[in-house]
Please model this.
Amino acid sequence: MQRSVTKEEMQHYEEHGYVILQQWFDPQEVNKLNEQFTQLWMDLVREGTIKQDKQKLLESIFPRLRDYHLTHPQIASIMLSDKMFAAAKSLLQEPALAISTSYYFKSPGTRGLPMHQDNYSVGSTPNTTCSLWVSLSEGNKQNGGIFIVPQSHTAGLLEPHVIASSEEEYGEKLHLENGQTEYFVHTKPGDVIAFHGNLMHGSYENQTKNEFRKAFVVHFTGESTKAVSLNHQKLINQEGEQVRRRLNLRRKQLKTDTLKQSEWSGIGGNKPWK
Model:
């Protein structure tokens, strides 16, 4: 039986900008998710879509798999499940629209994702977003787990700084302000971290030799949103229908083309599945 977001969980989300929905998915559902994306990954390798970079052997062969709900009905069915949409609806306090999906293998040696805010790149307005990060393996500091900055969602969208690509991280990064503290979030398979669109968060480098830190993420916004920068013509309601919103041309602009690079944006599907 699917449980609902509790009053206490809702209050924590509103006050701190995130909440952990423990064991939201059962072990069978976790295994199914991993199996479906592993099969997709094998297909992409076999057809030559995924190619290995000799400079980043594992990171390149296990890229982020982005928006394959648009081309694969089985993956879309996971995104459209009551578990995902019910949580998003509760936290957004209105019916939800799915914007984008991502699957992360986070293989050994994969660099961390710098501290960022989801809605900086998604560009939902006037509403923000809610991201549901489904833990599909244990997430800890050593294998590239998640860190957050509690209550940072109250500051609005901030300007990130360009950082030099390194062995630990890449792209553009937000920095802690006075009084802010970075907090590590340990997750178990089946846990879901819900992020407010303005919450500062990121992930650590995977420093292990043989552990993958797998996760599936869906970005949602509310039905009343007027414009979106990402996938504005390919939003999906719970019935699986494509919904359009205006293109948000006024979102904050990145100082580089970081999000267009494959190391950040990953490998993506772009044809409608329905």
Observations:
- The chain has one domain: 7-266.
- The longest strand covers residues 96-104.
- The longest helix spans residues 27-46.
- The domain at 7-266 is CATH 2.60.120.620 (Jelly Rolls).
